[in-house]
Amino acid sequence: MDLNDAAKLLERSRHVVVFTGAGISAESGVPTFRDALTGLWSRFDAQSLATAQAFREDPDLVWGWYEWRRRIVQRVHPNQGHLAVARLATLVPQLTVITQNVDDLHERAGSASPVHLHGSLFAPRCATCARPAPLPSTPDQSGEGRRVPPPRCAHCDGLIRPGVVWFGEQLPEPALETAARAASACDVLLTVGTSGLVYPAAEIPRLAARSGAAVLQVNPRPTPLDPIATVNLPGPAAEVLPALLTAAWGGFPLA
Ligand SMILES: NC(=O)c1ccc[n+]([C@@H]2O[C@H](COP(=O)([O-])OP(=O)(O)OC[C@H]3O[C@@H](n4cnc5c(N)ncnc54)[C@H](O)[C@@H]3O)[C@@H](O)[C@H]2O)c1
Ligand SMILES: [Zn+2]
Known about the structure:
By secondary structure, the protein is of the alpha/beta class. The protein has helices at residues 3-12, 23-26, 46-49, 52-57, 59-75, 80-88, 105-109, 173-185, 203-210, 237-249; strands at residues 15-20, 94-99, 115-116, 125-126, 160-161, 188-192, 214-218, 231-233. A six-stranded parallel beta sheet has the order 3-2-1-6-7-8, with helices on both faces.
């Protein structure tokens, strides 16, 4: 099974789910969690910074890390992979985009309302009363990032935390329900740039496979999803996704 088989499955599909992870944003310049952290963050690993415990113990460190990540995302652009996903919505009868990413590159590429299973860098909220909080306008600090004290809630003076799902936390119920419903109803699930290691999100492609959908996987490296994939398309998303769309529907510029 190769690119042309995958293209045929896609072209005939009535409902496609695209399921993305950090790998689709890697070529835009957003580091994945498996990339080594640099600068101030090189002494830490992402799995221990992205926890409620880390925020309780050292809120300035964790808030500073998320501000640094938000700045990276604001400076970069969607790549051909995100653009191909947005274009796919115009080519198949129904498309649901489910992402584990906390960046906004799908939206900026033109995908309407992707499901954010792990929250967003752009939706901070109060750690105490959970009310949404305004995004602070951070001065444009160059370089490596620094500790930044989190803002305080205007209602209860609690600390403002990033609106992301940390390791050990529950996924937002409505997002998880929408994702599970789409995964069990789709006929093709296209998984892109995810290690398939972070649960329960990694259940989504498995649920699609169990429900009888064809699973197409785009990733330059082997993943635990390889055995359930109907077609494995090794390579970077920004190359493979446009090639897949061209194989299915002919060439067109993605802008
Ligand atoms: N951009 C972001 O929003 C971002 C960045 C880092 C981490 N995260 C968080 O990381 C957690 C880890 O899960 P994950 O599976 O998303 O990421 P991950 O870091 O565990 O895995 C990334 C995967 O992408 C693959 N990859 C690397 N470059 C690629 C490319 N050019 N094209 C296609 N695939 C490529 C890697 O081989 C790997 O399998 C998630 O909870 C997510 O919220 C998000
Ligand atoms: Zn509050």
